[in-house]
Amino acid sequence: MASRVLVIGGGGREHALVRQLAASASRPEIFAAPGNPGTAALARNLTLDPLNYVEVLAACDAHRIDLVLIGPEEPLIAGLADHLRRAGRLVFGPGQLGARLEGDKEFAKEVMATAGIPTPRYHAFSTIDAALRHLDTAQLPCVVKACGAAAGKGVAVCDHKTEAEAHVRLCLQEQAFGLAGGRILIEECLFGSELSVLVVTDGQDYALLAPSRDHKRVGEGGAGPNTGGMGAFAPVPLSGDLCYRIDTEIVAPLLAELVRRDIPYRGVLYAGLMLTADGPQVLEFNCRFGDPETQVVLPLLQGDFLALVEATADGRLADYLQGLPDAETGGPDGWTGRGMTDWQRSAVVVVGAARGYPGPYRRGQPLHLPDDEASAWIIHAGTAAHAEGLTTAGGRLVGAVGEGASLAEARQRAYSLLDRVRCDDLFYRPDIAMASGRTIE
Ligand code: AMP
Ligand code: GLY
Question: Cα 178 from chain centroid?
């Protein structure tokens, strides 16, 4: 098995990835670039720019890396995986063609249309006049989206025409998202509950990680603006019928369409779904692990994470899946990859964020963390280490992860750990993973 692994990225997701790799039976030596104070405890952090493939390749040579796992979307969309593969490296993460599913929402819509995958109706625009004219007759609420990747800030769900017009202007006139907002989609608004489905695939075979849900709005009960995610939980209870529909109406057709287009894909495909009264529909595809979903799906994995990552990168996912424990461990029928997850357990992550987030917030405030426990631990997202201790260094600061035999137990463990974080600027949502105990049809 790979013995020297490099994880690209430095957020909460990458800390969770490093933590799971570190638990591998083969005890790999782990490097993180740039990493964060959380990964520093388990890996060697390397200072390099993930968008500079020459630097990444030099680090791979210098540290004799034999497997690279790319966390964030930017380097994937920029083609880092292609450069590394051309240089003979084993990589987990799609190349530029596959990553376009996230980097170009209009392309993703076109792929979905060809594959017959259910997704909201939309119109695409590059000029303000045409977009504003469309809004004169568009149904409200509507959703205005920058076509390119805009770090989670490019989407506005608009109840009123004035809000939609403002987001159109933000993208096309003020160019707040640069080229990523140079073309926009105006999309039909869907209602229902959201679901994140993370699919591990090597382009031939695939398996689903536990169904998860993140809480995107900043305030209790879903109030306030969207954020990068204030918490998440897994597994989301689903009926077998719904699982079957997600697989046969969304995941399988998408992967078949990628094969038909000769787009190789080795890594995680993340489907962001809305579970509507008419069935599951795709809001977005991402080309990477979700943040903070990764923090809750990885602790539920059965089997060795390093082996899964390496087999996927190497096109041997089928072999890995064959070696998994029997699927009779529970989980809904129709969930491909049932054997990947321990369905007897649940995990919850509650994000502690800096007061003001997702608007302006302070940095540099002292932050004191409690020690990790066996069933609850802290994931670093926006922290900085100094000689005097930790300080705040981002909007989302930490995630407290709790694991347990039920969602209630996992939630209680996450909150009781987060309660012991000391920081004047910290706030969190009190209702993560609440009201979710029923099966969703
Ligand atoms: P996206 O980046 O496209 O997933 O959008 C970010 C968030 O905006 C989603 O997680 C949803 O909460 C919301 N959203 C996006 N598209 C729609 C839609 N068509 N209807 C309702 N909500 C949406
Ligand atoms: N949790 C949303 C994302 O990772 O894009």
Answer: 23
pLDDT tens-digit series, residues 254-293: 999 999 999 999 999 999 999 999 999 999 999 999 999 9
For residue 247, give Cα distances in angstroms to 90, 195, 217.
28, 13, 27
Tokens representing residue 214 in the block: 């993140």
Tell me the Ramachandran region of residue 74: left when phi exceeds 0, alpha when psi lies from -120 to 50, beta otherwise: alpha
Q: What does the pLDDT look like over 325-344, one tens digit per residue?
A: 765 567 888 888 888 999 99
Query: CB-based burial of residue 173 (10 Å sphere; 0-12 exposed, 13-18 middle, 19+ buried)?
Result: exposed
Ligand 2 lined by 118 (C-beta under 6 Å):
no
Could you count the other beta carbons within 10 Å of the beta carbon of residue 305?
A: 17
Q: Are strands 4-9 and 396-404 parallel, antiparallel or unpaired?
A: unpaired
| Residue keyed to tokens 């608004």 | 189
Out of 14, 236, 293, mutate this one to test ligand 2's pocket (max ligand atoms within 8 Å of CB): namely: 293
pLDDT, mean of residues 120-145: 96
CA of 255 to the centre of ligand 2 (A): 20
Identify the three-state secondary structure at position 417.
helix
Nearest to 92 by CA among 306, 320, 292: 306
State yes or no: pLDDT of 435 exceeds 80.
no
Task: Tell how far the Cα of 274 is from the centroid of ligand 1, in angstroms.
Answer: 8
Pairwise CA distance, residues 206 & 204, whole Å: 7
- Work out whether strand 231-234 and strand 376-380 pair parallel, antiparallel, or are unpaired: unpaired
* Ligand 1 pocket member 73 (CB < 6 A): no
- Residue to mutate (ligand 2; options 270, 298, 351, 432; most atoms within 8 A of CB): 270
The ligand that comes nearest to the alpha carbon of residue 268 is 2
Report pLDDT digits (tens) over 235-259.
Answer: 999 999 999 999 999 999 999 999 9
For the beta sheet containing 122-125, the strands, ordered from the edge strand earlier in sequence to the opposite edge, are 122-125, 184-188, 142-146, 155-158
What is the rounded CA–CA span in Å between residue 327 and residue 15? 29
Q: Sign of torsion, CA 65 68 72 76?
A: positive
Specify whether the CB–CB gap between 230 and 351 falls below 8 A.
yes
pTM of the full predicted structure?
A: 0.96
Looking up tokens 């909150």, which residue turns up?
A: 415
